Amino acid sequence: MGIDILSLVFTTFFLTIIFSKVSNALDMISPSDSLTDGMTLVSNDGSFELGFFTQGSSKNRMTPITDSTGLLKTETTGKVVLQAQNRTTVWSVNSTGGVGVRNPTLQLLNSGNLVVKDDIGDSENYWWQSFDYLTDTLLPGMKFGWDLRIGLSRRLAAWKNADDPSPGDLTYGIELQGNLEMVIQKGSVKYVRSGLWNGEGFTGSIYFRNNPFYTYDFIWNEEEVYYINFLKNKSVMSSVVLEQTGGERRRYTWNPETQAWQMYSVHPNNNCDTYGRCGPNGTYKGENEDLELEVFELGTISRATDGFSSNNKLGQGGDTSK
Q: Which of the four CATH numbers 2.130.10.10, 1.10.357.10, 3.30.565.10, 2.90.10.10 does domain 1-133 have?
């Protein structure tokens, strides 16, 4: 993660959205405007800023603009276009359902979502949004998972290293085959699993249980399967980042006193969080490894034992997946 770059949401063409505290700036552009190198869009509340950036010695993600001629704009049809030298189009995307859009605008929302919407009519009807195309970072309000209607998988892909934002081989997504669960993979090899969803949390991870910091939900129906989280205190800045080094998913929060990002949690944090490393009872035989029992909520244990029935003790028929 580079200096000041935590939320890399829109970097296919080396634009970046970062946490910011700039105010009194534009948060949108219309077809008559454009965003060029040195200019930025800033969300209305000053939390996020969008602009071109240069990062380390990266050669691509996937084909960057190598000079200062970059230009981002939206056309009257709602199409988003990135151009380079001599106005050569290097990237573009057609807005979904763009037919009928009357006055398209490209706007950076307070959530960090970059959207194309019609400035006339329903402000929540987005023709296109960057939150559908994740990179290495998950922000509050992002859907992490599947839109089954169009076969869209919203998953994270780690940077190759701190100076190279091109995708590494570490990915994080929701697996649809068999039982639904979140999986971190190195290439095609499963590395970390969340365990199954039991209605309250994921059975294999304490990080998806009730906490004082954020709320979350897991939606599973015929149209969508996704995880989503929201901060309880909206003044807090936080995100989850998948990092190639260490093969970890880390949650960071901004410390206003030190003016620095602080790691709130990391997963996996021991060998038994790693897929296939431990046996069915969570036993790891590595040297100097601290062994811990899985932590369950009281309500989970009560349901698993039918109200602490003597006929259904844990280890004698109790099922903590309930």
A: 2.90.10.10
